[in-house]
Amino acid sequence: MTRLGLGLPTIRRAPTERPDTTGRPDATGLLDRFGRVARDLRISLTEKCSLRCTYCMPAEGLPAIAREDLLTPVEIARLVQVAVRDLGVRDIRFTGGEPLMRADLEEIIARSTEVAEGASVSMTTNGIGLDKRIGGLVAAGLTRLNVSLDTVDRDHFARLTRRDRLAAVLAGIEAAKLAGIAPLKINAVLMRDTLGGAVDLLAWSLDNGARLRFIEQMPLDADEAWARDNMVDAAELLDVLSSRFTLSQPHREDPSAPAEEWLVDGGPATVGIIASVTRSFCSACDRTRVTAEGTVRSCLFGDDETDLRALLRGGADDAELADWWRAAMWGKQAGHGMERSDFVRPVRSMGAIGG
């Protein structure tokens, strides 16, 4: 099926076109040709968002996905169960767009945690409206949150997100703290416009007991304005942060973790840096992704997708779903390839893929 539109896929693999699994061993997990095993599942719930961050969304937002094309809470929970029980997934994170734009988010969390069998269930959000829904989300089983916050300067926030909503984000963060969410993580995309405020953002995070992680901007913006020459890289950020803080003992909590953690002023507090572009961790990637429309995406930068929604709605059993998922991940590419001269950015933008 072909769909043309900003940020939406141009190719959807029909369920009759099984991915090539030549050479794949008889392994139950989500193994790829390079020996990596995916245990971290990201599920996008919607393309809609209450912000219009320049590194993600166009000013007018992404084209709407028809409601009937979105996975339902029952379908999402079924994929979670297959992923955990049959495929070895241990971490599930719900993303968007913005997950809070789904009115049935509490049901999605509740159904998913019920079948997650001990796997962690978390969510990435911009925090707008979180103060009004955190009680229901915690009651549904949510225990971990990542909140996207690139700056604590109101003017910079409004310019970057095209919305003057910093106060709403901070209210959501405060509500999550009061609800006992821990650890509470803050994700900040490195942008030239907000680099000067990076020190203030780290200071704010330390004061508020949040774990801050900076992320190098990737070529996933819908406006296609990303340019490597203008990108703020990890080395430049470290220089800026070192003007106020002493950073030491860089390490990774897990070999497949994307963030390199630095002790701040001797610890125990840390700051993480995800250098997706300049210090690629593709060789240790352990992620598998499901889009809001129910397609498996093996790599953030690979446009090849396998349609699980058609299988779900066509009567496939759990064993068949798991088999197709394994086949989709077997074909995962070696890496994003941004270092190559022939690099081609993916058709989907970050808002359409899911963070």
Biggest sheet overview: 12 strands, mixed
How many individual β-strands?
Answer: 14
Helix content: 25-40%
Q: Mind telling me the C-alpha Rg?
A: 19 Å
Distance between the termini: 24 Å
Question: What structural class is derived from the secondary structure elements?
Answer: alpha/beta
What's the name of the CATH homologous superfamily?
Aldolase class I
How would the global form be characterised? globular
Broad CATH class: Alpha Beta
How much strand? Answer: 15-25%
As laid out across the biggest beta sheet, the strand order is 9-10-11-8-7-6-5-4-3-12-13-14
- Tell me which oligomeric state these chains represent: single chain
Provide a count of the helices: 10
**Unreliable sequence segments:** 1-6, 8-12
Sequence of secondary-structure elements: EEEHEHEHEHHEHEHEEEEEEHHH
Would you mind describing this structure in some detail?
This protein is α/β, with parallel strands linked by helices and 355 residues long. It has a single domain, classed as Aldolase class I (TIM Barrel). Helix content is 28%, strand content 18%. The chain has helices spanning 73-87, 105-115, 130-140, 154-161, 166-178, 198-207, 234-241, 308-313, 318-330, 350-353, and strands spanning 30-31, 37-38, 40-44, 91-95, 120-125, 144-148, 184-190, 211-216, 247-251, 260-264, 270-274, 287-290, 295-297, 305-307. Strands 9-10-11-8-7-6-5-4-3-12-13-14 form a 12-stranded mixed β-sheet. Helix 1 (73-87) runs parallel beside helix 2, helix 1 (73-87) crosses helix 9 (318-330) and helix 2 (105-115) packs parallel to helix 3 (130-140). The longest helix has 15 residues, at 73-87. Mean pLDDT is 89; it is low at 1-6 and 8-12.
